[in-house]
Input
Amino acid sequence: MKKITTLDEFIIKSQKSYNDATGQLTRLLRDIGIASKIINREVNMAGLVNILGVHGDENASGDKVQKLDIFANERMIDCLQNSGECAAIVSEENKEIIILDKVKGKDPQYVLVMDPLDGSSNIDVNVSVGTIFGIYKRKSNVSQDPGKEDFLQKGADLVASGYVLYGTSTILVYTTGNGVNGFTLDPSLGEFCLSHPDIKMPDRGNYYSVNQGYYLKFDVEIRRFIDQCNDDNLRLRYIGSMVSDLHRILFQGGIFLYPNTRKYPHGKLRLLYECNPMAMIIEQAGGIAITCKLDRVLELDVHDIHQRSTIALGSAAMVDDMKAFVARYSSPSTSF
Ligand code: P6P
Output
């Protein structure tokens, strides 16, 4: 029987390769794994427990909040509060920074950005959803309260990022900047077990992922690129959950785009807790992540914790193709 490597074992083993590791990041990643198991249990029972349906409020993005959104948000915050390894959190569900209480004997060096349940509009129709997270080293001194300076950091400064996909199986994929590894939850053990070591994405794929319903609202260069995808007989796969759409592309190759539209002139997706963490994963797996203005996502200046960005990411050769279309068809006056 093949040796089972649990997420905890893998994280601890990986820590040994960092000389100055204090164990804080290890414990923080482990706590995220614990919170994900709790969220997974509720997501899997959503149809049985009175937890479906819209909560009625709106979140920081102005999206209607589903009850499971709140549950996922609260579980993640509770887990990280109890551990004392995280100083503060920015969540899609909260307009302001969540400053966690200090735990006796702990001097938290890290802060977390998260979309606790991405794609939550899919919940009521039993389509997969996910959690996205990113971890920064705090800039503020441990004697100070954490603040915006700890979060207004470029994606390139992320210490770790990852996602949990609550799909046909539950898989946690993360990177600390040295490659990407995937862990599948074994319900019989209650453990995330290493199932996809050292993930490297294909240079090309047969899929493109974009909300084709907005085609007429995209700028001409994006429409021309989508036309080319159609001419190349690529298959459109888009389920309205960034984690699910990108998980397919990570393993089978392809390109995901969320361009600017009239409704979202700067793009819809959030830079801090959707674009940057997923861009780090894609780059670490050998792909490319840029904006529709061709800037590297991870190099974007962050000036607001709920800032939006356009994004095109996935297989390197396909993103290069898209770059050529933008260079060829975009009018100099086009504003993004
Ligand atoms: P649209 C989900 O709400 C989300 O933030 C991403 O997970 C997803 O890719 C996108 O928005 C879907 O947006 O406008 O196509 O429904």
